[in-house]
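Technical note accompanying the year-one report. For the benefit of new consortium partners, we illustrate the data format agreed upon in the data management plan: each record pairs a sequence with a structure-token string. No post-processing was applied to the example shown here.
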Amino acid sequence: MEEVVSPKLRVLMLGLRGVPGVQGGIEKHVEQLCPLLVERGCEVEVVARAPYQPAAHGSNWRGVRLLPLWAPRSKNLETIVHTALGVLYAGVRRPDVLHIHAVGPALMVPLARALGLKVVVTHHGPDYERPKFGRLARWALRCGESWGMRWASARIAVSRTIQERVRERYGCEVHRIPNGVRVPPVSQQTDALEPFGLQPGRYVLMVGRLDSGKRQLDLIRAFNQARLKGWKLALVGGAEYSDSYTEAIEAAAHAPGIVMTGFQGGQTLEQLFRHAGMFVFPSSHEGLPIALLEALSYGLRVIASDIPANLEIGLPAQHYFPLGNVEVLAERMREFAERPLTEGEREEYRQWVASRYDWNDIALETCAVYEGLTKKSLTAGKRIATS
């Protein structure tokens, strides 16, 4: 009897700034997914943008190879230049699968296919609808969606809304594989709240990049109208580039009771989530918001705008408000502040979201897409007996 080792399925990830601990929904998605792909027999390499990739993690993190590749610090050129360089690098490395995330980087799918690569594209949302982009950028993003969906070897959508849009618009098959959550262990630590002057159970939390599509200004106005006695508003997140919107948030945040923490991660972010009195997500454009799923995984009562991506999560009607309606949002906040959740109710939220959005299931479904594309079986890395 002779033993042989089955070769691993080699995957190269492209289209994100970096991992781990880098701000952004796509970054969080890849951070959670990649180590699980490694556990299931994939050899995974992430091509990150050098200005964002944390140097402390070196070239390997939890079995995932990390390659910081140069990218210009330019709002308009960063994504396209880095993705083009990443595709050329993939042309040399020859992975079994090049996995590109988001419609902007998907502009480079035709180049990748011309180089003979098998390409999976995950559609995280129609970024061309975000108000921060100008006319030329929106046109480029629409082209990215079109070229990515038409030319990809396989396609993934993070929500049913995106899946249906792609099927209708481009007539191609799309796998729906959502974002996920990990239910965190219960902890009573509160030391990370002290620098921000926050008291457990007495602050409204929002986590998200400072961006006009996230609608932080709506939340600030609603918080001021709600007049929640003894409560504060914690805005967690930073800006990619300073603009008039970030300046407006900073000016509005000078009001009493409003705290801007900047981008946070690790234990600080965990404590901010765990001890919030409620979580509010007033965004106007999303794919399937990881921050909202994470809030539920901590057992928080949430209020979200009634956009399709948020509605798809399937919460009861009282957890939603009409997009942009500050008065209704303020009323929802008053109602929720008056009746805090019991520990039993919080546990129900945690188990409910865990049963629907489990990263382990998501990794298995992603592996199935790879296997269907490459015809490789993920017995990779295991010894197989032969005669």
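Partners are asked to follow this layout when depositing records. The domain at 2-180+358-382 is CATH 3.40.50.2000 (Rossmann fold).
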